[in-house]
Specification:
Rossmann fold; 820 residues; ten-stranded mixed sheet; binds ligand NBY; six-stranded parallel sheet
Length: 820
């Protein structure tokens, strides 16, 4: 492949694409498939990236700069080619080159498989953070797992979700680089042995199984600043070659077991969102990538420092939820068993280097590992956790003498389980929630005891999103329109968009803005036609709810409301009703039956309504198959209404709410998560808020819930909708199909109380909020103003703002400049 190109010029670029086709595939342009051209273009772009990458790492070494290691089981990065071209400001020249070779750049971009190494919000947040870190010139590593199969691809068959393996590496992933030279060993099982060294006991593992952790590096390209940070994802290989000279070379049985261990560890992402499943393999995955990441971080640190006690001045480990929390005992192990420190010194370092972000208050998402499993898999780590716990309980006793109940509530090891969130809290110097209300709930309820013990550790960091992917890349028409008016500074400083405020009162600007929205709706309508075979009218209101399917997010309330509207229109065919397209996109965890049944319900309702000619297309219901980062980019740009309707207190923050807002869709939502902050910025008159408050929800929960039968009996329209769940209206072939959903709302099931997410309780308020939306939409001029005000108020929801706050309050990094 061609040598170093500083700034791509079109002719060189064309030549390079042609060369790449030749060396990669032995093809010339006329024979190449779109996939081949994509690969050839990606390799050409990668060359430029590499120059910046090398320069960045040199600059970091020279500056001796402090780094953040963002430890996360998930990075939902989305496609790289488009984003990279934009960051390098090479999109135009590449488009021209590709066109002159006879291809369309959008089609080429569509050839890239979405790396889907995450479930939803938490994984996407990690990807936005890396994007911001690079763009803001901060030294950072993402550390994760190279799952061979990412988030499953969703097919809808006969209305049901079917999971298809996501074989994203099938054609090779051009942006990754295997770094075999940094491979290391991770040990599982066996037992802990002791020997005396210089009069002190030294602990080491015996009879263990090993895997070889091999890193693959992905470039995270900053916008226009030559910074390229690294996302390092670890793959597992069998260790056999490491072992050739070891005493147990002949241990055939172990060799086979190690082969199996290596094969399974990095095979597949667990597709659960906000749900803990307690699988042994998951704990192996956690320890695998944490041990490899920490070993490497320490080794790198020691290359340029000789005093390990300095570590917290140069390195900070941010734990993305509890999934990476074995980092705490693993760091202790490395410091004590490999660096020879005593407990106190090791603890002083660990507790200054680790910080923890909580993403949920849902109890079913809290990780608690049975000690039998934990100690069998990680015997040395378990010993260390026991000692952390013992000392932690002493600390509590010291501060709250005699308060045994408090110690029971806070113990890290309790009732035969290791409580990971508690270990994270005990060890971290910082504990943060992801929106103001969420952090408050952590302090007052979920982690109250920990707040009382160490209030200074707690802080809030409201989430954010990157405007580079979710506006510049996803909505080029609006991005250009904004740049024409206020310049392009918003790309790296989103607070600039408030300058758009002056255009709100300009009629021509409003028309242009809404015209862009219309074009984006046409783009989505085409996507829906192509992928779903459903014709939707781009002039209808696009009312959108896209996110993981979970009961607390209340997609069920949304579809029940559609059923309710349909009944109304059927009863009153002449009632004024502006046409609506209700758009859903959601994956359900593979074992989450009620969530999957809800998908079936949405599709069943869609079937009936979309095929009822008598309502003249006044309602269309669309379930977009395989919602993922790349379809999301098309969807946000086209939305009129953003459905953010979680039961108040349950959604820690939400981030799609911010993506919709930035693209000019007002929020129809509850006072939950970051919705509260969105409404504060944009003004209540530019959003549609309804329903119970978090306080009311928590109150009612503490009183043992409520009886939805009263609502069912008193409200005939709600009653009718619920009856349609069990009278075969939407399931004539099996009237019992939706019984479980009906029961969950009215009688409770599986030992749960009825309607734990207060769907019936909030239903009327929700329906009434929809009426406000329809009324507002009818006033075209004012609607345009509302949309524009949403874009103009989105400044604080950039992940750049979030990252600056993490840097200021937790990480204390310094910016590094890279000059080529
Ligand atoms: O994190 C989400 C929150 O629900 C959302 O409100 C917030 O905006 C976002 C970013 O802070 N949480 C989330 O996505 N969680 C998971 O995906 C997840 C995945 C796996 C497990 C737990 C949670 N697990 O225990 O296996």
């Amino acid at each position: 492949m061609a040598g170093v190109i500083k700034k791509l010029d079109k002719e060189t670029l064309k030549q390079e694409i042609i060369n790449n086709l030749k060396t990669l595939y032995r093809k010339d342009v006329s024979e190449a498939t779109l996939q081949m051209v994509y690969q050839a273009v990606a390799y050409a772009v990668k060359e430029d990236v590499i120059d910046n990458w090398i320069a960045t790492q040199k600059a970091y070494d020279k500056a001796g700069a402090k780094k953040v290691y963002y430890l996360s089981m998930e990075f939902l990065v989305g496609r790289a080619l488009g984003n990279t071209m934009l960051a390098l400001k090479e999109e135009d020249v590449i488009r021209e080159a590709v066109e002159e070779l006879g291809f369309d750049l959008t089609e080429i971009e569509d050839e890239e498989r979405d790396p889907a190494l995450g479930n939803g919000g938490l994984g996407r947040l990690a990807a936005c953070f890396l994007d911001s870190l690079s763009t803001l010139n901060y030294p950072a590593y993402g550390c994760g797992i190279r799952y061979h199969y990412g988030m499953f691809r969703q097919k809808i068959e006969n209305g049901y979700q079917k999971e298809i393996p996501d074989d994203w590496l099938k054609n090779g992933y051009p942006f990754e680089i295997k770094r075999d030279e940094y491979a290391c060993e991770v040990k599982f099982g066996g037992y802990v042995a002791t020997r005396m060294e210089n009069g002190n006991p030294h602990f080491y593992q015996k009879n263990y199984q090993s895997v070889r952790a091999v890193p693959y590096d992905l470039p995270i390209v900053g916008y226009g600043n030559h910074i390229v940070n690294t996302l390092r994802i670890w793959d597992a290989e069998a260790i056999t070659s490491f072992r050739l000279d070891s005493f147990d070379r002949g241990d055939y049985q172990r060799a086979v077991e190690e082969q199996n261990l290596a094969r399974t560890i990095s095979e597949v992402l667990y597709p659960n969102d906000n749900h803990y499943s307690g699988k042994e393999l998951r704990l192996k995955q956690q320890y695998f990538f944490i041990s490899a990441s920490l070993q490497t971080a320490i080794k790198k640190f020691l290359q340029s420092h000789d005093n390990i006690r300095e570590l917290p001045n140069y390195v900070v480990f941010q734990m993305n939820d509890t999934h990476p929390t074995v980092a705490v005992p693993e760091l202790m192990r490395i410091l004590m068993d490999e660096q020879g420190l005593g407990w106190e010194e090791a603890w002083a370092i660990t507790s200054k280097a680790c910080a923890y972000t909580n993403h949920t208050i849902m109890t079913e998402a809290l990780e608690k590992w049975p000690i039998e499993l934990f100690s069998r898999l990680l015997p040395r780590i378990y010993q260390i956790v026991e000692e952390i716990n013992r000392r932690f309980l002493l600390e509590i006793e010291h501060k709250f003498p005699g308060d045994q109940a408090r110690k029971d509530r806070m113990a890290i090891i309790h009732d035969g389980q290791v409580r990971m969130a508690f270990m994270a809290c005990a060890a971290s110097f910082s504990i943060n929630g992801v929106a103001k209300i969420h952090t408050e709930i952590l302090e007052k309820q979920t982690l109250r005891d920990f707040y009382e013990l160490s209030p200074e550790k707690f802080n809030n960091k409201t989430n954010g999103i990157t405007q580079r992917r979710f506006l510049l890349h996803a909505n080029p028409l609006l991005a250009d329109w904004i740049t024409e008016r206020i310049g392009d500074k918003w790309i790296t400083d989103l607070s600039e968009v408030k300058k758009l405020g002056v255009y709100v009162d300009d009629k021509k600007s409003r028309q242009e803005y809404m015209n862009i929205k219309y074009k984006n709706k046409v783009r989505l309508a085409n996507y829906i036609l192509e992928h779903n075979g459903i014709v939707v009218d781009p002039r209808s209101i696009f009312d959108v709810q896209v996110k993981r399917l979970h009961e607390y997010k209340r997609q069920l309330m949304n579809i029940l409301h559609v059923m309710y509207l349909y009944n109304k229109i059927k009863d009153n065919p002449d009632m004024p009703f502006y046409p609506h397209t209700f758009i859903f996109g959601a994956k359900a965890a593979a074992g989450y039956h009620r969530a999957k049944l809800t998908i079936k319900l949405i599709n069943a309702v869609a079937d009936v309504i979309n095929n009822d000619a008598s309502i003249n297309g006044k309602i269309k219901v669309v379930f977009i198959e395989d919602y993922c980062v790349s379809s999301a980019e098309i969807i946000f740009a086209a939305a009129d209404v953003s459905e953010q309707i979680s039961t108040a207190s349950k959604e820690a923050s939400g981030t799609s709410n911010m993506k919709f807002m930035l693209n000019g869709a007002p929020t129809l939502g509850t006072m939950d998560g970051a919705n509260i902050e969105i409404v504060k910025e944009v003004g209540e008159e530019n959003a549609f808020i309804f329903g119970m408050s978090a306080e009311e929800v928590i109150q009612l929960e503490q009183n043992g819930g409520y009886n939805p039968m009263h609502i069912f009996n008193a409200d005939q329209e709600i009653r009718r909708v619920l009856m349609q769940l069990i009278n075969g209206f939407y399931s004539p072939d099996d009237p019992e199909r939706f019984r479980d959903i009906y029961n969950s709302l009215l009688t409770g099931s599986n030992g749960d109380r009825p309607d734990v997410y207060f769907i019936l309780k909030d239903f009327r308020a929700y329906a009434e909020a929809h009426e406000r939306v329809d009324k507002a939409y009818a006033d075209e001029e004012n609607w345009a103003k509302m949309c524009m005000r949403n874009t103009a108020a989105a400044g604080p929801f950039s992940s750049d703002r979030t990252i600056e706050e993490y840097v200021r309050d937790i990480w204390h990094l310094k910016k590094v400049e890279v000059k080529l």
